[in-house]
Design a protein that fits this description.
By secondary structure, the protein is mainly α. The protein is 78% helix and 0% strand. It has 18 helices and no strands. The longest helix is centred in the middle third of the chain and has 34 residues, at 140-173.
Length: 434
């Protein structure tokens, strides 16, 4: 495959795309749960609706990533998907606000969320594949650190913006419940409009500015079934994908049910009133988590390139898991802040260190022409946990008598189970042989 010299322009272009996508996903994480609480109090129903993202992400990225590998277009293999997906995702963000503002029934609101998830996943694999397509092995940790930094800065931006708007709405309306106050003002539409602008703008920027290298000639292409079979047969890919599924499921337990966790710990129950009462706090805590993720992201990329793949991944995983073990015992807002802050540092290291792994494995096995399909599967193993965490996590909470705190130790256990899989990968470090 044709390679270009390391270019900070390409890295920053991809980082901008990552920033915009994170703004979109943060909009979903920050506002969908409290908006759904206006329709139902059931953790299982809300978790199942939010898990639609997992179902769509499980199917679309592997399929479209596979077909993008073989796309022959003067516009490139990845950029057409990025352009179409970014545009549709921006439109979908506006539709979510419109659906809620018009008061459509729960089923209609859920379908609007599903369209947003579909649009975002139209170009998930292509976004991920562009980094190893354009950055040489040995430089990918550095690139991953910057891209991860900007991705989580997008989360921070949206959570901070939403928290500010809620505080402003509360001050103007006198309504104690944050999301209810926001819904009574024109401010509710602002995060959705800004998200749409970023999604469409970043897709346009990458389409017109970031140039893909010439597509390689694929002499012996895999069939779709053959590609899926090859993942199962290659133990390194299988171990990594399985490990990633576990640590993302741990993350999604917290991300999906954070408002319920806060309401339970601070108010004793996750009722609609208590969930709405902690909405502003939840947004600020998400912002805090993202700040500490940023602190871990750049060192995570450097550790990946300089000190070793296993060390960086396992270090990040352990730092992420330990505060969750403590989570079973916390009872105050201060303890929650400390636990999420420490977990964020570990998550930042883990994210920066895990992103380049697939690209480096493809380099090792001389399969670099297939980055789209393998990063498609990479994204599927990030989406499957949304499905599992939303449904299983909601069921666990309901079975535990609405005790949301139970998600902390279960999440920590999942991360710790993933670490031996990483340790036993045979070709994770440069120069290792089977």
């Amino acid at each position: 495959m044709e390679r270009k010299k390391f270019s900070w322009g390409i890295v920053l272009g991809l980082a901008l795309l990552g920033f915009s996508r994170s703004v979109g996903w943060a909009l979903n994480k920050g506002l969908s749960f409290p908006l759904l609480s206006s329709y139902t109090q059931s953790a299982f129903v809300k978790g199942t609706i939010l898990a639609l993202e997992g179902i769509i992400g499980l199917l679309i990225p592997p399929l479209l990533g596979y077909y993008s590998d073989t796309l022959k277009s003067k516009h490139g293999r990845r950029r057409p998907f990025i352009m179409i997906g970014g545009f549709l995702a921006g439109i979908a963000a506006l539709m979510i606000y419109t659906a809620y503002a018009l008061g459509i029934p729960l089923a209609g609101f859920a379908l609007t969320l599903a369209f947003f998830y579909f649009s975002m996943h139209l170009y998930t694999a292509q976004f991920r594949a562009l980094m190893p397509d354009t950055i040489e092995s040995g430089e990918r940790g550095k690139a991953s650190g910057v891209i991860t930094l900007l991705e989580w800065a997008g989360n921070l931006f949206l959570f901070g913006l939403a928290g500010f708007l809620i505080a402003k709405a509360v001050a103007e309306t006198g309504e104690a419940e944050g999301i209810k106050a926001l819904a009574q003002t024109p401010y509710l539409k602002i995060p959705f409009i800004i998200t749409a602008v970023f999604l469409i703008g970043a897709a346009l920027f990458v389409y017109f500015i970031v140039k893909e290298p010439k597509a390689p000639e694929i002499e012996e292409d895999e069939s779709l079934i053959g590609y899926l079979k090859s993942i199962v047969e290659n133990r390194d890919f299988l171990k990594f994908y399985a490990a990633q599924t576990l640590w993302w499921m741990s993350f999604e337990f917290i991300a999906i049910f954070l408002y319920g966790i806060l309401a339970f710990i601070l108010h004793g129950a996750a009722t609609e009133e208590n969930v709405k009462a902690v909405t502003s706090l939840g947004l600020y805590l998400m912002a805090l988590f993202n700040i500490t993720v940023l602190l871990g992201a750049l060192p995570g990329g450097i550790i990946y390139d300089k000190l070793g793949r296993r060390l960086s991944i396992i270090l990040g995983g352990i730092i992420f898991a330990l505060p969750q073990l403590w989570g079973w015992f916390i009872s105050t807002q201060t303890e929650i802040v400390i636990a999420l802050g420490l977990a964020g540092i570990g998550w930042g290291i883990l994210m920066a260190a895990s992103y380049p792994v697939i690209g480096d494995l493809l380099t090792h096995y001389e399969r670099e022409a297939f980055t789209g399909r393998y990063y498609g599967f990479f994204e599927a193993t990030r989406s499957l946990p949304v499905l599992l965490a939303g449904t299983i996590g909601g069921a666990i909470v309901d079975l535990a008598g609405e005790n949301y705190r139970i998600l902390f130790p279960i999440g920590a256990l999942l991360v710790l189970l993933a670490m031996p899989m990483i340790w036993r990968m045979k070709n994770l470090e440069p120069g290792e042989k089977q």
